[in-house]
Amino acid sequence: MSFFKQFGRLLVMGARAHAKWELDTSRTILSDKRRIAILGLLTIPIIIGGFAFAEDIKGALPSLIGGKEAYNPAFYSPLIFVISILIGVGAGLITGCIGAGGGFIIAPALMSAGVKGILAVGTDLFHIFAKAIMGSVIHRKLGNVSVPLAVVFLIGSILGATTGGYINRVLYEINPVLSDAFITTIYSVMLGFLGLYAMTDFLKARKIGKTEEMHGTHGRDEGTDLGGLPQKIQAVRIPPMVKFDHDLAPGGRGISWIFLVLSGALVGLAAGIMGVGGGFITFPIFVYVLGVSSMTTVGTDIFQIVFTAGYAAISQYAIYGFIFYTLAMGMLLGSLVGIQVGAMVTKVVPGITIRGFYAMAVLAGFVNRIFALPGKLGGMEIIPISKETGALLDKIGIWAFFIVIAGFSIWVIGTFFKNIGAMKGEEV
Q1: Omega into 148 within 30° of 0, i.e. cis?
Q2: Per-residue pLDDT at 61
Q3: 126 and 315 in contact (C-beta within 8 Å)?
Q4: Angstrom distance (rounded) from CA 27 to CA 119
């Protein structure tokens, strides 16, 4: 039980850290007219694909923006672009208001809408890469980036992302249903851990009357005081040793390259398989396993997201045609707005309420994926279940998921407009 509790806690901490990156990135993009202009230019292929009348232009577009034409059937539908914006808004509202977990609903939402799992993963990765490269604030935080730490870590993350992308593609070539079942299983496990821990945490907090906000710091600069595991890992002296955190210890702390490569491989594998960028895993690994200070972790995490997500998106998915460009850009546009609205709502909503919504949102994603799994396993004749029963369970999961997410989104937007005067006054 202790292991499950600690694992859930680490995932929540990582999801919060990744959400903070999402919020910072969104603010950076929306506060810069040049970045907004670039974002507008990125939507031009969608406009051309959606509204152009020349068939030769339409036919050339898929090869221009990613891979095999067979995987790009709807680049030209304005409706699918609008739907992707709504998905991005929902994910952004969760990220901004709850402070964690919004990115986890994107792939389940796309798969529930009928997008193949491998296409949902590749599209999510591309959306994260586009957001990271546009909103990169590395130049502002270079003092917090340990370049040796990041470079060695990236060696592992590239290996991991290559492996993850290869696994997804091989499974898809064997059987698209097998690929969907594999991705669904991974999401079910991760969302199950996150959701159960978050709900338990919420019920305990409500019982004893806690009202802390989920946003903000974790109370101190994590990693300044080394725990038992980081001490043991840093005591292993397998050269070459990588130095970091020179301002916290004389001569800096050191860790063997092998632990950084292994950690990077795990992050890259998660990014390659799940399409979430790996940022939510980097924070707990760096701070609680490797003993890196949170300041260095934040800067290095920003650095690795750009390269890990970019490498995985382009080399493992885009060149094989597994990226839905229209969806990626729509989600990017929607999430930028949703994150800002959600973040403002936190100023007028009790922290205990936010915890409850977080648990509900993550569990909705878990229910969505776990209810989709029987039908996929039945389709491969792994379990004895009729096609009708599998379809019914899948439909129940889809409705439960979208009802919760839509209800949450309506509540957040309603709260925003209801309290917009108070929030403007607080800003001033």
Answers
A1: no
A2: 40
A3: no
A4: 28
Least confident range from 43-47, 153-157, 175-179, 360-364: namely 43-47
State the burial class of residue 173 (Cβ atoms within 10 Å of its Cβ: 0-12, 13-18, 19+): exposed
d(CA 420, CA 341): 10
Q: What domain range includes position 69?
A: 2-427
Report how far residue 246's alpha carbon sits from residue 254's, in angstroms, rounded to the nearest whole number. 10
Rounded-to-integer distance, Cα 107 and Cα 117, Å: 7
Query: What residues are paired with 243 via a beta bridge?
Result: 254
What confidence tens digit (pLDDT) does each residue in 392-421 have?
999 999 999 989 888 888 888 888 888 877
CA angle in degrees (0–180, nearest 5) for 303-309-311: 100
Largest CA distance in the chain: 67
pLDDT at position 45, please? Answer: 66
- Provide the terminal-to-terminal Cα distance of the chain, rounded to the nearest Å: 47
As a whole number of angstroms, the distance between CA 410 and CA 215 comes to: 21
The torsion region of residue 136 among left (phi > 0), alpha (psi -120 to 50) and beta comes to beta
The number of domains in the chain is 1
Note the pLDDT of residue 428: 43
The CB-based long-range contact list for 221-228 (8 Å cut-off, 24+ gap) reads 221/293, 221/294, 221/295, 222/287, 222/288, 222/293, 222/294, 222/297, 223/286, 223/287, 223/291, 223/292, 223/293, 223/294, 223/296, 223/297, 224/248, 224/293, 226/291, 227/288, 227/291
User: At 385, is the secondary structure helix, strand, or coil?
Assistant: coil
Between CA 392 and CA 125, with CA 394 as vertex, the angle to 5 degrees is 165
Of 39, 127, 71, 55, the C-alpha closest to 319 is 71
Half-sphere exposure of 402 (CA within 13 A, CB side): 13
**CA–CA dist 370, 168 (Å, integer):** 19
